[in-house]
Design a protein that fits this description.
Strand content: 15-25%
Low-confidence stretches: 1-12
Helix content: 25-40%
Shape: elongated
Structural class: alpha/beta
Largest sheet: 9 strands, mixed
Mean pLDDT: 94
Bound molecules: ligand LLP
Distance between the termini: 52 Å
Radius of gyration: 23 Å
CATH superfamily of the largest domain: Alanine racemase
Number of domains: 2
Oligomer: single chain
CATH class of the largest domain: Alpha Beta
């Protein structure tokens, strides 16, 4: 059991053992699972607040606006919490815009990215002044032309930025890299400069900035350094073409978090130093710098609580079968990503066994871990928590195998709140005929 305790401490300490019970901000997760059922997503408001202020403090002294990338976790209560902390938001669909609207996120602090924004979506947005967002991040020439056409047709002003694909390898998992030439995102330097030449003086479309987002779970500073360098050069060229200064740059998200306890990732101090060097120094001082963090604000502020349904022990091969599955948390199945798993009870006398931890979905890839040493006997009803599940956990979940989506609970400032009810089977099938 000793090794478990040492490995356990989450970076923000919100999830930890107290008197042999694994707790969130002092409340045993077992208690929450008794009350709200299993499987269950549980978030810590304290951990969210702490990660937000760590980032904000690291960047202090610069004109930074944090636009939380809500795709990481778009629960309305979580969005309200970020709004209270002063965050804007990065959106990737009209659906996310709708959530921002419900959560009351200030319209001028919303940026809208996405490669496939449709005419219907723009049409809805252009009913509002400045499309009810701070800026639209354009990802293709055709998209720009459509926005320009609609803005003129509706006689409505709209602010845009160009999402630049800087052809930089973020040195992260292949499936979450977004800034290489072969990736589908953004515009090339040439496309951006052409659009600047043709539309610098457009009556309705205001070209206000340039954005990048080179990938996610970035654990080294070198990709950022490369990307910031080429972005800063492009800013010079764009300003020459426009004949005026840009209003802002948006540096995207991507800051990596430790999934293995003790794992090294990018230091916020180093990240801030790079931002300063390229965008807040004598050479280039931007009026405004946006960043779009998702994972780094919430991954380690959430866990997925699950219960053992059965186990199978065949010699050395042991399989622990949980009541959750890849439909609830698909990161391990999709990216073979690692998540720490802990037992909710810290029993002294339990033997450590190496488990393949699996879900109940009819897919061979439905694994949370392989050969993981855990102090679990394998008895029905034993509970575990899968850590670092706050980002891209619930937001990527599905009802595959007709399994209802889970309940979500937020523990904040001593209060326990059910922030999403467990889906019922009736709700799950309600749109079908
Ligand atoms: N901005 C844009 C335009 C993005 O596409 C993303 C994430 C972010 C910001 C936020 O990036 P973050 O700070 O969270 O790294 N499902 C994957 C991650 C996909 C990220 C997609 N874009 C995972 O579970 O690892």
């Amino acid at each position: 059991m000793k090794i478990m305790k040492d490995r356990l401490i989450q970076p923000d300490h919100s999830f930890n053992y107290i008197k042999k019970e694994f707790c969130v901000d002092g409340i045993p997760l077992n208690k929450l699972a008794d009350r709200y059922g299993s499987p269950l997503y549980v978030y810590s408001g304290t951990a969210i607040r702490e990660s937000f202020s760590r980032l904000k403090n690291a960047l202090t002294g610069m004109p930074i606006q944090i636009c939380y990338a809500m795709k990481a976790n778009s629960n309305l209560t979580i969005l309200e919490l970020f709004k209270k902390l002063g965050a804007g938001c990065d959106l990737v669909s009209y659906g996310e815009w709708f959530r921002a609207e419900l959560a009351g996120m200030p319209r001028n602090l919303r940026v809208l990215s996405g490669v496939a924004k449709t005419a219907e979506e723009f049409d809805c947005l252009l009913q509002f002044p400045n499309a009810a967002v701070g800026s639209i991040h354009v990802e293709s020439v055709m998209e720009f032309e459509l926005i320009q056409l609609l803005a003129h047709y509706r006689q409505q002003k709209v602010t845009v930025a160009f999402r630049y694909n800087p052809n930089v390898d973020a040195k992260t998992h292949d499936k979450i890299s977004t800034g290489r030439k072969k990736d589908k995102f953004g515009l090339t330097r040439e496309e951006i400069l052409d659009l600047c030449v043709n539309f610098a003086q457009d009556e309705f479309v205001n070209i206000a900035g340039i954005s990048i987002h080179i990938g996610s779970q970035i654990t080294k500073t070198s990709p950022y350094e490369k990307a910031f360098g080429v972005l800063s050069d492009l800013c010079d060229e764009v300003e020459d073409h426009l004949g005026r200064s840009l209003e802002y740059v948006d540096l995207g998200g991507g800051i990596g978090v430790p999934y293995h306890l003790g794992e090294k990732t990018i230091s916020l101090k180093e990240y801030a130093a790079l931002v300063k060097k390229y965008f807040h120094s004598k050479n280039r001082k931007m009026k405004k710098i946006l960043i779009e963090p998702g994972r780094s604000l919430i991954a380690n502020a959430g866990v997925l609580v699950s219960e053992v349904v059965y186990s199978k022990e065949r010699g050395t091969h042991k399989t622990l079968i949980l009541d959750s599955g890849m439909n609830d948390l698909m990161r391990p199945a999709l990216y073979e990503s690692f998540h720490e798993i802990v037992s909710l009870r810290d029993e002294d006398d339990l033997k450590i066994k190496k488990w393949d931890v699996v879900g109940g979905i009819c897919e061979t890839t439905d694994y949370f871990a392989r050969g993981r040493p855990l102090p679990i006997e394998g008895l029905p009803g034993e509970r575990i928590a899968i850590l670092s599940a706050g980002a891209y956990g619930f937001s990527m979940s599905s009802t595959y195998n007709t399994r209802p989506q889970l309940a979500e609970v937020l523990v904040d400032q001593g209060k326990v709140k059910l922030i999403r009810k467990r889906q019922t089977l009736e709700a799950l099938v309600s749109l079908e005929k």
